[in-house]
Amino acid sequence: MEQRSGHLTIIQCWCVCLIIAGLLIACSPPVPVPPSPTVAATPALMVPSPTVQPSPTVVQIPTQQPTVVVAPSPTAIPTSVPQPIATAPTPVFPVPTPDPALMQRKPPLGTFFFYWYNCPQQECDSSQLLAVPPGWLTPLPADPDPRDGFSYSSYNYDWYENELRTMASIGISMVFPVSWGDHPHPWFRNDRLNLLVQANGVLEHPLTIGMFLDTTAQQGMYQEFLGNGYRFGPDAPRLPLSDPRSGYFFYNLHIRDFFTRVPREMWATIDGRPIIITYTALCCDNLELSGTLWQAVKDAFRADFGVEPWLILEETWLNPQALAPPEGLPDSAQVADGVYRWGTALLGPHTAELRGFKVSSVGPGFDNSRIPWVREPRGQPRDEPPGGGSPAPGAFLRASLAAIPPDTDLVLIETWNEWPENSAVAPAAYTDRDGRPLPPDFYLQIIRQWREQFVPQP
Q: Alpha helices, DSSP H only, in 63-213?
């Protein structure tokens, strides 16, 4: 290919202008969009789309150059043959009152919270799990009013309150619900956030709520928009960021509604700016326009809410393609406020820094070998420390937490409750490598102990 000169040709300039104009329009605040459903992250899911959606009508507002980002999912090493699952009832343990001094210690501790469950009614096959949480197969223990929901379910107010109280008891101060925006599953709709907010509001020390923007949803939204059904995964076409409507699927159909439902006083913030953490860039093509997309998203957010979000991109959004935009457009690193790595439950602890802001992410281990549609199962035993060493219960999480530097600005636990991939730390019927039962709050004890002993850099 001929090397590009220092100036764009007339045709190139015209193309770039068209892309910018389209993205600006797509991210401008349109007529309010009704809340949309969401779904669990399952590869290559196809949900029939009854009708093709009409082109969105939006109102253009003056913004700066827009930005777009895409990121892949984590990778791992092949796992061994699955062992029998623990089926004994999970005991219920008392949740201690949060220590205010512990909650105020820096850095903030956050976790990724999955609310796509509706057990035992839909998609709750316990044979896919290595550890079964309370309420998965039977009514949630001690639920004062089971009429408000169904066990381990996003319909159940008491489930939300119990999960949030448990998080707070170990020093977690920020919760990042995984959000898919529009999705056909009714139990994973954006309106499920209303129960999360309601439950959070009764806590003595409510958690703050940030957004985990699962960008896989953009792939599904775009395919449904084209009339191909809600499809995502490696076998489905990606959302091209060169499409002027791409910003519509990120902001108008997804981000805006999330922050409209979460009260400002509950927003998780950095320097007063609400936090958005993205999933990987596997959803999208044309990543050279990712910086443009994300800037447009930031500008539209500021126009609606009066403040610019604090954007933490998954590192795949900062790949070489994303860092080489067309001349005159920003790259994703210029627009992002932070960067992190998804997949630390599998790959080990990681700290990433962008312009002096450090994000550390850790997990307890990983195993997706029981999920039927996974083509290449991967795993990291929970009892084996990263990089090798003497096995012991919880060794992977202990060593990962110990690797967090004292000057980090934010710590993320991956995950609170992603059960099919066995990366959860929430109470469940865990066992050690020999099948012996562990206390249901075993991993919470590890986090609590680290939190109490962690000494941040002055």
A: 100-104, 157-169, 193-201
Domains of the chain, by residue range, sit at: 10-38+57-453
Largest CA distance in the chain: 70
Sign of torsion, CA 275 281 286 288?
positive
pLDDT digits (tens, 9 = 90+) for 161-220: 999 999 999 999 999 999 998 788 989 989 999 999 999 999 999 999 999 999 999 999
What is d(CA 13, CA 16) in angstroms, rounded to the nearest whole number? 5
Q: How confident is the model at residue 148 (pLDDT cuts 50, 70, 90)?
A: low
Q: How much is the pTM?
A: 0.81
| Residue 1 CB coordination number (10 Å) | 3
Domain 10-38+57-453 part of CATH 3.20.20.80: yes
Q: Per-residue confidence at 104, pLDDT binned at 50, 70, 90?
A: low
Decide: 115 and 154 in contact? Cβ < 8 Å. Answer: yes
Quickly tell me which residue has 């223990």 as its tokens: 141
Distance from chain centroid for Cα 262 = 16
User: Residue 265 is encoded by which pair of tokens?
Assistant: 């006083």
Which 8-state DSSP code applies to residue 40?
-
Q: How many CB atoms lie within 10 A of CB 80?
A: 10
Compute the CA torsion angle 202, 207, 210, 216 (nearest 10 deg). -80
- The DSSP 8-state label assigned to residue 187 in this structure reads G
Average pLDDT over residues 382-405: 96
Distance, in Å, from the CA atom of 208 to the CA atom of 174, rounded to the nearest integer, reads 5
* Residue whose C-alpha is closest to residue 222's, from 214, 233, 208, 232: 232
Amino acid, single-letter form, for residue 426? A
Q: How many residues does the structure list for the chain?
A: 458
Q: What is the pLDDT of residues 405-436, one digit of tens each?
A: 999 999 999 999 999 999 999 999 999 999 99
Closest CA to 301 of 276, 329, 331: 276
Find out whether 439 and 445 touch, Cβ atoms under 8 Å. yes
